[in-house]
Amino acid sequence: MDIMEEISCETADEEEMEIRIPSYPLPQEIQQMDHTEKACRYCGVSYLILHEFQRLQEHLREVERELEQMRGSAERERTLRIELQEAHSHLEELKASVLQHEQTLRALDLQLCVVTREMESMRVEKKTALSELENERACLLHLRSKSVQQQRLLRKTLALLQFSRGEMTTVKNQLTHFLETWDNSKALIQQSCISADAECAHLKQEVDGLQVNLKTLEVEVPKLKSFLEPAREQILQLKNQVQTHKQLQNQYQDACLLIKGLEDEMNSLKLELQNSTHEQEHAKKLLEIKTVEKEDLRVLWREQTDAIERLSRDLREKQESWLSSQQRCQSMQEQLLVWQQKEEAATRRLEWAEGEIKDLREARCTLQQQREELQKTHMGELERLEESFRSRLKATEEHSLKMEAFLQQKQAEQDKQLKQRETELRREAHIELDIQRQKNLELLNKYQNEIQQQQNKIPAVIHSATQVLQEKLSVLQERVKEQEKEMQHIHESSSQRQQQLLQERRTAEAQLQYTLQELRQKTLELNKAHSNIQQLQEERVILEKENSILEETVRRECEEREELTAALTLAKEQLQGFKHCVTKPHDSQTRTQLSRSSVAHPDLPVPRLNPSRPHPQSGNHSSFSTQRNRHSLSGLSSDDVSKSAASWHGSSQPAPTLPKISKKKVTSMNDLCKSFAMLRGRQDKL
Questions:
Q1: Averaged confidence pLDDT in the chain
Q2: Model confidence over 507-537: pLDDT tens digits?
Q3: Is pLDDT at 639 greater than 70 in this prediction?
Q4: Which of 202, 380, 595, 627 would staple 286 via disulfide (CB 3.0–4.6 Å)?
């Protein structure tokens, strides 16, 4: 134990005293060389492995940068989720607007019911007006009977009637003006209806275009699903790679079991060494030669202990890297599950958006049908109002014509009667002038008095009749104006409703276009994510290839370590032999001569006192060690060889010596292990 502590202290001092060579770039001549000239033809490892590791480190840095850029995909997903939530809220607002539209339609239906009720009330009023007109006609007949009695007085009333005729012509002109204005307004209404129909046709064309776009989107959805299937296949491939990784772990466990078996072989070799100590008592004469080699062996022992410690550290680092790789594999599996869940959620959201689009289409169709029904009902009511107004105008015109014809007939009859009576009176006057002059004078006086009284009454009657007619005309004009106002109000309300419906359609179409654009953007982002995943998988395949190359290099290093362990076992055997030689320094010189002769003749067999069968598995190690010992013993001096050849009368085997390990090889192995650990750590970060 004291010796081991001293050796460890010395190795630590030597490590502190080591000078580290700075790293310089390779010259261009070496860079332009082929790979076959740079690599070993036996093992395949390049002589410029440090430079290659630097390149790999730079490549890993670039990959880490790209991964850091890809990590921002989580934030993009968050933004996408926020946008989807906003779209969901927007759709809810659209639903609320649709409900409001339904409420407005219900209110319009109620207003239509109210208008129909008002129309019915107007019809009732028409009936009452007709009954009043019939009563007035009866009154007029009664007045006509009175006018027959007052034929003479009607001549004076003709002037007043002519004046009233002029007023009636003015009223007719006003009515014709009203009809012209109505025709103009009707033409404008028809033009507005035609423009509304044209806008409806344009909107239908836009709806057809949107439906075509939706069909294209529906065609693109299965394509996206077809892209999802290869992504799932790639995920299965990744799972298979994870299984291969587990198989490698099992192989590593098998290698550990093999190491344990080798340790058992080491124990068996120790037993064989105990038997060989009895044989080495005959070779005590080699002490004089091996005293010179003790210092070299101590140096080698120190170097080998350093190498063993470094190898043990490397093994620990590799175990830690294996554990970290297992944890990363689990994390990768979890990430894959998360990606699968995200893809399923995206498909669900797409299906939900498609269902909402279908609902919006159905709601839009219902709104269009309701709008068409409202237009039909509105146009029917307008036509009914126009027909009723025309019938009223025709009735008023017919009534006025009848009144004029009746007045003309009355005037003609009165003229005829007056002429007949004048002729009769003249005849009677000529006959009865003489007889009835006195009576006529009395009658004339009476008639004059009566005529004066009737003349006083006639202007009052005419004035009352004209007032009644004027009042009726004013009432009719007011009713016509009210109906025109109602028609204008109905036209304005209908135009406002049409504008509202058009605005609502435009807003709904804009919202649909916005949702379609969002869906297209989301599909593009999904395609980008798939392409990024494929790039990562390709980079992972490249890294796995590099990893396999590094594993091959590690396997070769493990083979070299096994060779080193065989050399260490030989060194331990030699140290035990040295200890026995130190404990027994009183042996004869004949044995030294034997050892020299054995060195001089390495091919001759050495007699063993206690022969024992070697372990079957230690044959390879023993052959390898003998070859190395032969190489090491070839450097002895010629004098020692001549002395040993003369002192021994038989043949003996050469004592094995430990080969010298170059420091450059150990440092290169350590650099390889460190670079491998760094690569594994960066892969784990990835």
A1: 68
A2: 767 777 776 777 777 777 777 777 777 777 7
A3: no
A4: 595
Burial-class residue 519 by CB neighbours within 10 Å (0-12, 13-18, 19+).
buried
Q: What is the DSSP letter of 607?
A: -
pLDDT at 379 over 80: no
Instruction: Please answer whether residues 494 and 386 qualify as being in contact, where contact means their C-beta atoms are separated by less than 8 angstroms.
Output: no
Number of residues written out for the chain = 686
The pTM of the full predicted model, rounded to 2 decimals, is: 0.20
Determine the Cα–Cα distance for residues 150 and 154; give it in Å rounded to an integer. Answer: 7
605: left (phi over 0), alpha (psi -120 to 50) or beta: beta
| Residue written as token pair 């129309």 | 119
Per-residue confidence (pLDDT) for residue 441, from 0 to 100: 67
DSSP string, 94-120: HHHHHHHHHHHHHHHHHHHHHHHHHHH
How buried is 582 (Cβ within 10 angstroms: 0-12 exposed, 13-18 middle, 19+ buried)? exposed
pLDDT in tens, 293-350: 666 767 777 776 777 777 777 777 777 777 777 777 677 777 777 777 777 777 777 7
pLDDT of residue 100 exceeding 80, the answer is: yes
From residue 193, alpha-carbon distances to 19, 302, 491, 676 in Å are: 99, 108, 11, 83
d(CA 379, CA 365): 21
In angstroms, rounded to a whole number, what is the distance separating the alpha carbons of residues 630 and 38? 31
| DSSP string for residues in 131-173 | HHHHHHHHHHHHHHHHHHHTHHHHHHHHHHHHHHHHHHHHHHH
Q: What is the mean pLDDT of residues 68-73?
A: 72
| Cβ partners under 8 Å of residue 187, min gap 6 | none
Q: Which residue has the tokens 């002029």?
A: 166
Contact at 8 Å (CB) between 625 and 658? Answer: no
Query: In whole angstroms, what is the distance from residue 329 CA to residue 336 CA?
Result: 10
What are the C-alpha distances in Å from 98 to residues 89, 167, 562? 14, 57, 81
Q: Is the dihedral of CA 97, 100, 101, 102 positive or negative?
A: positive
Contact yes or no for 305/8 (Cβ under 8 A):
yes
With contact defined as beta carbons under 8 Å apart, do 654 and 630 qualify?
Answer: yes
Hunting for tokens 């498909």 — which residue is that?
347
Residue 39, beta-bridge partner list: 46
CA 234 – CA 531 distance, rounded (Å): 12
Say if residue 611's pLDDT is above 80.
Answer: no
- CA-CA distance, 451 to 443, in Å (whole number)? 12
Measured CA angle at 648 (ends 642, 649), to 5 deg? 125
Q: Which of 610, 634, 535, 628 is nearest to 63 (CA)?
A: 535
Question: Distance between CA 284 and CA 395 in Å, rounded?
Answer: 157
Give whole-number Cα distances, 392 to 130, 137, 245, 522, in Å.
11, 17, 99, 65
Q: First CA to last CA across the chain, in angstroms? A: 45
Q: How many Cα atoms occupy the beta-carbon half-sphere of 52 within 13 Å?
A: 13
pLDDT at 186 over 80: no
The residues pairing with 672 across neighbouring beta strands, listed in sequence order, are none
Helix (H, G, I), strand (E, B) or coil at 25: coil
Tokens of 162: 């002519």
Work out the pLDDT band at 499, boundaries 50, 70, 90. confident
DSSP type of residue 402: H
Q: Are 304 and 568 in contact (CB under 8 A)?
A: yes
Would you state the structure tokens that stand for residue 249, as one six-digit string?
């772990």
pLDDT for res 625: 42
CB atoms within 10 A of CB 570: 24
Q: How confident is the model at residue 284 (pLDDT cuts 50, 70, 90)?
A: low
CA distances from residue 356 to 225, 352, 507 in whole angstroms, order as listed:
20, 6, 17
Query: Which pLDDT does position 324 carry in this prediction?
Result: 75
Q: What is the largest CA-CA distance in the chain?
A: 221
